Each structure stands twice: as structure tokens, then as C-alpha cells.
Amino acid sequence: MGSGYALLAIGFTLIFGVLRRLNLSYGPSIMVGVFFGTFLFIQFQAGWYTVLVGTVLGAAIAGAYVERLCFWAIKKGAAVASMVSSFAVWMQLEEGVTIAFPDRTYEFPALGDFELIELAGLSVRQEHVIMLGIAAILVFALHQLLYRTRFGLAVRAVSEDPNAALFMGVNTGRVIFLAFILASAIGGIAGYFIMATEEVITPKFGLQATFKGLIAMMLGGMGSVPGAIAGGLLLGVVEKQAEWYAGAVWRDIAAFMLLFAFLIVRPGGLLAQHTAARDLAALRRV
Amino acid sequence: MDDHVITVLNNIGGFSFIALSAYLLLLSGEISFGQQAFFGIGAYASGMFTAMFGLSFWIALPLAMLVAGLAAAAVGALTLRLRGLYFAIATLAFAETIRLILVATTWQVDVDGEPVGPNGSEGLGNIRWGFDNEYAPVDFLWMIYGSLGIVLLLFFLMERSRLGSIVRTIGADRLLAETQGINVTRYKILVAGLAGALAAIGGAFYAHIQTTVYPENFDVMLGVHSLAYGLIGGLGTAVGPILGVLLDVGFLEAVEWIQGYRMIAFGGLVAVLLIFMPRGILDERRVHLLRLMLRGRRPDIHGAAGH
Amino acid sequence: MALLDINGIGRRFGAVEALDGIDLRVEEGEVFGLIGPNGSGKTTLFNVLTGVYPPSAGEILLDGRPIGGVPPERIARMGLARTFQNLRLIPHMSAFENIWLAQHRRPGMGLRDILAVGGRKERARRDEVETLLERTGLATRRDAFAGDLPLPDQRRLEIARALVRQPRLLLLDEPAGGMTPMETQEMATLIRAVAAPGRTLIVIEHKMDLISDICDRLCVLDFGRKIAEGPPGRVLSDPEVLDIYLGREADDNSGDDSGDD
Question: What residue spans define the domains of chain B?
Fold first, then answer.
């Protein structure tokens, strides 16, 4: 579970990093992708890889739509307008999916039938191990992309200083658009894995995905990929513990209380001291 | 008036309070995703005061405002260091915590042989004060719009007074406010508390009209909507957020024939509107021009002309 | 006793010593100039004086009372006001509103003032703002948005906004920055008028003719240290000042609009 959250948080962080704006429609875009995946499954009995590709594709297309309408079209400096606009689009996506899939809940194909396996004395569900492994591979690939390619350099330049990047000949609009689609695709993968373990989907998943990704990102520290991973894992562990000891309602209470406490005590998050310090410095600048 | 119209008008009035609450915070430069918590606290507290302890609504309302205002001031004090997105998320986390605690809490007392009180996700029912005192929906209509009128009057006075200028300065430029001798901390807490009390008014009316309230009524959708109202209607005047509510609730009701596609239509409309008017319909510039026109002054918006 | 007494002020940012043991005394009624190359610590000194940063060493006395490390809002209420080099007007408000916003002096929450709306006191306050617009030459710009004003008017508006607080000590950070010679002359006239009733001013400027025109005394900073101090005629002919300040200015033409810190 934690690795799914970590992937969600990475997607969030990518968008926030390049845009410095919050995309509330991130979860709902993923939800659109997941529903597209389930459509392929129900209609054509598609295999798991087709469902995965469909999910990622659906999420990326929905993400592109959100980016064009809420971020590209609204001028710089109107961050709140972008956020509210992404919320409006969220309602659109949710209702669109509800109309297309009127039954509210649908079956989602599981990864397969797996047995519990013993790992270092703990019994672990095998698909969780697979999830963790794939998440690790993805993070590695993303790291390579961000630090070894021209595109990655451009993304990092834009998130450090969009104006400077513009002067250095980076096409910021394009970079933002591509990063947005990349983030949505990562979200699609995360959505696929979370759904494959839950096996039931509803349009409310959009809300959940936005929340979990947001919490994990804030716990780790905004704009930091390692922070997002740490935040996602921490959130997964805390939720499981709270659920085990106090029941399902307390799972979510624990998540939000943890976030609230973290923001007050350590607003920079687990791993992003330098980002927080930079934000503070920017505020203090006269 | 038929009952349907009255219900719609009551909803518009009730949501106007929480929209104004989010707007007040926007003026002071903060984006809150959590005003629904104080709407909910207002609803639950006032409902408990009348249904469980038999108080009159007119006593329960100020008490509920006090409870919500104090809670909001406390949250404001805790989140003082946070700005921008951090503040927004902290308020969201607080609001969701409150909502989920209400889901997890059951506390009932015996009133006339019936258990009354918050009952987890079953909500708080039996808020019969309006029914017992033979208040019809139309009576609530007068109560809501009377209170809204008073609140708006206070808003206009505030905007013209020193308090309003202080809040706007803090919202526009915190450091500037400090170098002008404003104790920013104190005003932030004051504004947070006032905004909380304001949301509670809406919640109290909502609870007594619905007679049953559920924790799910106060989810994040309500909070983001209330924020959106100010941004749709405009940030230049307190009429803006109310215009936003009117557009949303009014629009949704008016176009019932596209039932089922309302959110798609409305969502698209809002998204397009924000592209062309990122600070809402009645933004500062348009409000300024309107004021000048009302006073019969020639609007000199292009200051670039020589002097 | 001097109105402002600065003793051995230091301020470090990490390893950088932005201010290094500055001593200054500014007498009541004086117009005091502060010059130096970019990055020499002039704006940092303003920020320390107004409480934006606490000093890391030394002592500042305003009218005999220590203000080092005191929060900015308390210093402001002790009668100190400033303008900003990179202009901090509220762009989506009119010139009138920008001044009006700054007009609050007494402590207290302002809840009582809600009742005063439309009353005699409020009219008096409005008249005061109108008078200031008149005096700073902005009367015709009264209803224009601050963000729409041309630069010289924005700088005038900053001064008007500081004046409405009736400061005893007014700090002007590059009041003629980015202006033409003609506009600079008008600004000099305004500054002289502001100083006329015996008000104390500290002015940061790069334009030497303006500085020598309006200042009684001035001081030169370089790398956070004081190089010279005295009347303009003497300081500006000091060979060390000419060498350090003007010599370096020649290769660095970024001049007025780049940030000081």
C-alpha cells in the first residue's frame, strides 16, 4: 500500500515542482484511467498488461486535458484560480465517469491469485512484494530520466526557476505539459496497483487518490522525490497500524492527524529541509 | 412562494455564510480548505444545544458561534507559521480529522424516551426546535436573510474601516504590514476566529432546517466549493462570494433539464470563466470602476497619461 | 542626543558578513545620505533598522530606546517608516487606497472603528490622505490603480504612504531609482519639501547629484564597512571613496535596478 502512495506522491511532487501550483484533479485523472482499464477488462476480458496500459493511457489523456484547461490557459500568478479550476474539472470528470459507469462500483482484475509468503518471519501478501519491486524499478527509471536526460534537466531547471529556464531556451510550456503527462502516467500505474489489490473501484477513488498522494507528498516535503517515497511509506505503515489497533475509521483519522501534527511541528516534511529553507528565504527577501 | 423555491433560497442563504467565511480568509491572504469544519461544528453544536439540552435556537446560535470561533482561533494560532499551500493542507487535515471523529463518536442522552445525540455516521437527528416551535421554512427564510443582511452590513463597515484596511494589507503583503506597525499574528488569529464563527452561523441554520445532519455533509467538497464561490463571484467585494453561491446553487437548480450533466456543464463553465477572469467576476478592478461610476467620478484607470 | 544611534552593528548571512561593525549617528532634523556600490549592505542596514532582520551584533538606539531585534511592527509604531527599493505597493488598489491602508497608528484591534465609519473622525482621516496626495503631486492620480502608475508616480506614492504614518525618522530606499534626470530633479524637490518641517531622513541613492543636492551629511559603505562619513562636498572628493566607489561603478553598469542584497 505504502509503495502505491509513494508513487502517487511522486506524481504530485512532479507537477507541483514544475508548476508551483496544486492540481486537485490529479486523483480524478487517475480515476478516469482506472475506469478505462476496468472497461477493457469487462468488455474484452483484457489481460493484466492491457488493463495496465489502458489505465496509464486513460490517466495520461485526462491529465493532458486538465493541464490544457486549468494550467496552460490560466495565466501565471493566478495560482488559486488554477486550483479552483482543477477542482471544477474534478467534478466534471467524476460526473462523466458516473454517467459512463452508472453502477457506482465495478470489479477490477486482481494481479492474480497469490499465496501468502513468509518473509523474515512475517507473512506477506505476494502482490505487495511485487508492487514494492515495481515501484522501486519505476523510481529508479524516473531518477535516470530526471538526472541523465535532456528532458530531465529541463524539468529540473523549470522547477528551480521558470524564468531563468526560459532565458536558457527551455520551452517551459512544453516541459510542463510533458511533466504533467508523465506524472499522470505514474499516477496511472499507482492507481492500477492500488486497485489490483482492492479489486473494487468507485468514482470516489479520485478523492482518495488526491488525498493520499497529497498527504504523502506533504509528509515527505513538497517538491522532493525521495521525500515523496519516504512520506508514502510512512503513511502506509501508520495507516496499517491504526487500522490494526483501532479499526477502519481510525485509519483515516490517524492519517490526517499525522499530517496536521507534521505540518505544525515540521512543515518542511521529512526530507526537504533545503526546500523549506529556500521558501522561507524567499518570504523573507525584501 | 412554493416550498421548492424556499428550499433553494434557504440553501443559497446558508451557503453564503461559509462562502463569506472562506472569502474573509482569502482577504487576509490565506486559502482554507477547511471552513467546512466550522460549518459542521456550528451545525453539531447548535443542534446538540437545542435537541439534547432544550435550549432556544437564539441561545444555541451564539453559543455555537463561540465554540466554532474558539476552535478556529486555536487552529489559526497553531498554523500561524504556515503559508500558502501548507496552510491550505493543514486546514484540510484538521477538517477531515473533525469529520472522521464525528463519524467515530456516539454520545446520546435520553430526551422524552428517545435517544438523542451524535451517533457516528448516522449523524445527529431529531433537531426539532423549528418543528416544535412551529417554524415553517419561510420563517427560516426571514431568519437566514436577516442574519445575512446583518453580516453583510458588518462586512461593508469593516471594508471601509481600519480593520478592513489592515486585513487587506496583511493579505496583500505581510512584510509591508509589519513595517506599517501591524501585529500580524494577532490579526491572523482574530480573522481565523471570526471566519470560524461566520461559518458556524450557516451550519446552525442548516442543521435546524434539515433536522438531521451527517458528518458526510461537511466533507471537503463543501470546503472547496465555499472557496470556489469567492473566486467565481469575485474577490473585490463581499457581494462576490454570494454571487458565486447564486450562480452555483441557482444555476444548478435552473437547468434541471440537463439533470445528470450538471456538474459537467458547471465545471466547464467555471474553468472557462477562470481563464478570462482569474480573480472572479467582481474583482477589485471592476468593483473599483463600479464605485467610481456610482460616485459620478470619471474613471481614470490608465494612470499612464502625463501629469 | 542623536535621534538614531548605531553602535557596532553587524549582520551575517551564513559566511557572508553583510554588515561589519557599522557606527552611525543621525541627528534630529538631518537629511543623511547612504551610498555605496551594489551589495555593500545599504538595504541590509535598512532591513536591520526596521526589524526585518535582527542584527547579529551591536546596538541600535532610536531616541535613546534600543530597537535591535525588536519586531518590525513595534519599531514602526515608534515612529519609523520606510519606502522600498523594489516598490511594495498593492497593485490592485487605487493610489488613495494604498495610502489609506497605511493610515493606522494606534494599537488595538480596530473593532471600534467599524462604528466610526462615515463619522467625523473618518472624514478627518480621508482629508489627511487627500492632502498628502496633493502634496506629493498625485491628486490627479487619486483613483488610478497603483499597478498602472508610471514608475516616478509609484515612487511618490511610496513616499506618501510612508508619510501618512507621520514618522519621526523616514528611510528612503533609492527614491529616484530608474528615473530620468528630469524626474530625479522633481524627486529632489519633493524630498526637500518632505524634510522641510525638520523631519529626519536617511536616503539610499546611487545618483550623486541628488545626494549632494539634498543631504546634510552622508556615509559610504563598502563590503559592509563604513569607508567615509561627512558633508557631501568633502566625502565625494575623498580619493579613497572615488577609487573604491566610482572606480568599481565603471565596470558595473547594472546600477539602479538590480537588487542590493
Answer: 3-218
* A84/B228 CB distance under 8 A: yes
- Contact predicate C240/C228, CB 8 Å: yes
Nearest-by-CA chain C residue for B181: C73
Residues 6+ apart with CB under 8 A from C68: C9, C48, C54, C55, C58, C59, C60
Q: Residue B235 burial (CB < 10 Å; 0-12/13-18/19+)?
A: buried
Decide if C61 contacts C67 (C-beta within 8 A): yes
What pLDDT is recorded for position A87?
Answer: 85
Start-end of H helices in A101-247: 126-148, 150-160, 162-167, 172-198, 205-220, 225-246
Phi-psi region for residue C21, left (φ > 0), alpha (ψ -120 to 50) or beta? left
Of B71, B37, B59, give the one whose Cα is nearest residue B129: B59
For residue A276, pLDDT beyond 70 = no
Residues of chain B with pLDDT under 70: 1, 256-260, 297-307
Q: Tens-digit pLDDT profile for chain C (261 aa)?
A: 789 999 989 988 877 888 888 899 999 999 999 988 888 888 899 999 998 888 988 899 998 899 988 888 889 888 899 999 888 898 888 899 899 888 866 555 556 666 667 677 778 888 889 999 999 999 998 889 998 999 999 999 999 999 998 899 999 999 998 899 999 999 999 999 999 888 999 999 988 888 888 999 999 988 888 888 899 888 888 888 877 766 655 444 444 443 444
List, as one string, the DSSP characters of B142-182: HHHHHHHHHHHHHHHHHHHSHHHHHHHHHHH-HHHHHHTT-
Residue B172 near chain A (CB below 8 Å): no
DSSP state of B297: P
Which of B31, B85, B268 is nearest residue A92 as measured by Cβ atoms? Answer: B268
Class of domain C1-79+168-261: alpha beta
Give me the amino acid identity at A81.
A
The β-bridge relationship of strands C31-35 and C217-222 is parallel
The verdict on C70 touching B (C-beta cutoff 8 Å) is no
Give me the helices (H) in chain B, please.
3-27, 35-51, 57-78, 84-104, 129-132, 137-160, 162-172, 174-179, 184-210, 220-233, 239-245, 251-254, 262-276, 284-294
Cell 530606546 maps to which residue?
Answer: C65
B90 inside 8 A of chain A by CB: yes
Q: Tell me which DSSP letter residue B53 carries.
A: T
Residues of chain C positioned with their CB less than 8 A from the CB of A284: 52-53
Partner A contacted by B8 (CB < 8 A): no
The residue to which cell 552611525 is assigned: C24
- What are the start-end ranges of the H helices in C136-205? 151-163, 181-195
- Any idea where the domains of chain C sit in the sequence? 1-79+168-261, 91-166
Nine-digit cell string for B148: 445575512
Return the partners of chain B (3 or more C-beta pairs < 8 Å): A, C
Interstrand relation of C31-35 and C200-204 (parallel, antiparallel or unpaired): parallel
Give the count of alpha carbons within 13 A of C110, CB side only: 24
- Is A67:A183 a contact under the CB 8 Å cutoff? no
What subunits touch chain C, counting only 3 or more CB pairs under 8 A? A, B
Give C52's contacts in chain A (Cβ within 8 Å): 284, 286
Residue B209 carries which side chain, given as an amino acid letter? Answer: I
φ, ψ of residue A182 in degrees (nearest 5): -60, -45
CA distance A252 to A261: 14
Q: Which of A143-147, A205-209, A246-250 has the lowest mean pLDDT?
A: A246-250
Interface of A with C in 266-285 (CB under 8 A): 284-285
Counting Cα atoms < 13 Å in the Cβ hemisphere of C144 gives 21
Residue B89 backbone dihedrals phi, psi, to 5 degrees: -70, -35
